Amino acid sequence: YSDIAIDRDSIQVGDKITVSFTLTNIGEYRGKEVCQLYSRYLHSRQKRPAQELRAFSKVELQPGESRRISLTVPVDDLRYYDTARQRWILEEGAVQFCVGSHSRDLPLQACVTALNNVARYRLIARDTQPIFILENPLARGYFNRLSATQLHISEPDRRPH
Question: What domains appear along the chain, each with residue ranges and CATH number?
Answer without folding.
Answer: 2-114 (2.60.40.10), 121-161 (no CATH)
